[in-house]
Amino acid sequence: MIITLASIWICLVMQIFTLSGAIDFWLKHSTKVIKITPLPRYPMITIVVPAHNEEVVIAQTTRAILDMNYPADRVELLLYADNCADKTVDEMRRVLADPRYRSRNVKIIERTGSGAKAGVLNDALKIAHGDYIGVYDADAMPETNALYFLVRKALENPERYVAVFGRNKTRNAQQNFLTKCINQEIVVTQRIQHCGIWHLFRIGRIPGTNFIIQRQFVQEIGGWRNGALTEDTDISFKIMQTGKLIALAYNSEAFQQEPERLHDYYVQRLRWAKGNYQVVIHNFRHLFDHSNWRVKLETFYYSCTFFWFNAAIVLSDIIFLANVGFIIARFFNPYLVIPFTFGESNILIMQVLLLNWLLMIILYILQISVAMATQFGQATTRQIWLALASYFTYSQLFIVISIHAVTSVCLDALLGRNGNVWIKTKRFNN
Amino acid sequence: MVNWFFWLAMEITLIFFILVMILFVLQWIIYSRVEKTMLHYDKQHYAKGDDDWWFKRY
């Protein structure tokens, strides 16, 4: 019981530390007005869009990419219809038939190979002509200046910033309770975690979409790991290992579609969790070798989050539920002893720990509130109530997902199963 | 042991409480700065009839 509590306290220290970094970042950026000024040069960008059965969203995404505020002759677009069984290719062709886009440098490639998204990116790497490769998922609609901001950040220090990533926003945030909760989670990840960690340690994590990376550099490190469930986390570690940086262009935004049904959400997050566990296990040895300090810190952070803290939260939930169960059972048998206490008569310690829990809930809401406050008009009382509701519902779901993911990763290893089965996230027409 | 743990929990809770208070105040500072900057920009924007749609605030 004491170990569980101590683990949760350590987790809180880490969380408050990251939150403080993010707050410092936003205090410095909250009064900044950004102007779009011409760049010293416009490097050639090859944008890759891997699309596997994406007929519902691909047209919107293609148009958004082609309409971006970046010189048209400096953009090469590779649209990959990866093992498609629907009308993705027809949709791509329909958009390109528009007279506005006839002169654009766009290739549609119908692919039948393996390797999932990483396989597509590796294929694109072989034929790309750009100085940088930009990646947009088929459901990610970039904002007009998204690419401009990424390139602007990369040009600040092209030697060190080999990759630059932006933010993703939920484009179907108002659809239902689930998408509202996902939106809050994404906002916190992007505006607290990413900004805080970049500000404190100059550590960036490549997301699945809305990022650019130097083509020559990716070729040097051997490209993406074929079949990886989270190819983005995997390549982030590879980049950090070389001592180069993944810079954050916090004002580059893309609008991404999130799952609208619990089942789709569960499947997507299970894949992410499994992928992250695989990456942590794969990189765990770097904690003890002569790796780059950023790799060590990231491995430590991921290991703590995915193994130690998760285990502590699961254990604390078990203790809580067991005690609640015994309290209910006492109504029928008054002689039952509650199993996990510091002595049933010790009311004072119980009150302190209850206050502790209350503060944890306040911290959870506070970090959502800080994240919302960083953008005009988003910090509303409705978001506070939503945060409170999501603490007891949505965020508890991740405990189930993480237990499922750990079990699945262990069973994959024990039974020699192929754990890299990529299940596509369902898209919605909105 | 329980006595020792009680005082540890007490101290941690107190530090935690102070930190939450500080973070709460800082959150209001960020909120007011962001809203003020945007409203100030909007005021200028409408007064000038500015159609500089590329102008972004963060």
Description:
Chain A: The chain crosses the membrane at residues 6-27, 300-328, 348-372, 384-406. Chain A: This is Glycosyltransferase family 2 protein. Chain A: InterPro entries: Nucleotide-diphossugar_trans. Chain A: Keywords: Glycosyltransferase, Membrane, Transferase, Transmembrane, Transmembrane helix. Chain A: One of its GO terms (molecular function) is glycosyltransferase activity. The complex is a heterodimer of chains A (430) and B (58). With 430 residues, chain A is an alpha/beta fold. Chain A has helices at 2-29, 58-66, 88-96, 116-127, 146-156, 177-201, 215-220, 231-241, 262-283, 293-330, 347-373, 381-392, 394-415, and strands spanning 33-34, 45-51, 75-82, 106-111, 132-135, 140-142, 161-170, 211-214, 245-256. In chain A, strands 4-3-2-5-8-7-9-6 form an eight-stranded mixed beta sheet, sandwiched between helices. Chain B is mainly alpha-helical and 58 residues long. Chain B contains one helix and one strand; from the N terminus they run H-E. Chain B is rod-shaped, with a radius of gyration of 22 Å. The termini of chain B are far apart. The model of chain B is unreliable at 50-58 (pLDDT under 50). The A-B interface holds A 2, 5, 9, 12, 16, 19-20, 23, 26-27, 29-36, 69, 144-145, 250-251, 342-343, 346, 348-349, 352-353, 355-356, 359, 362-363, 366, 369-370, 373-377, 379 and B 2, 5-6, 9-10, 12-13, 16-17, 19-20, 23-24, 26-31, 33-38, 41, 54-58.
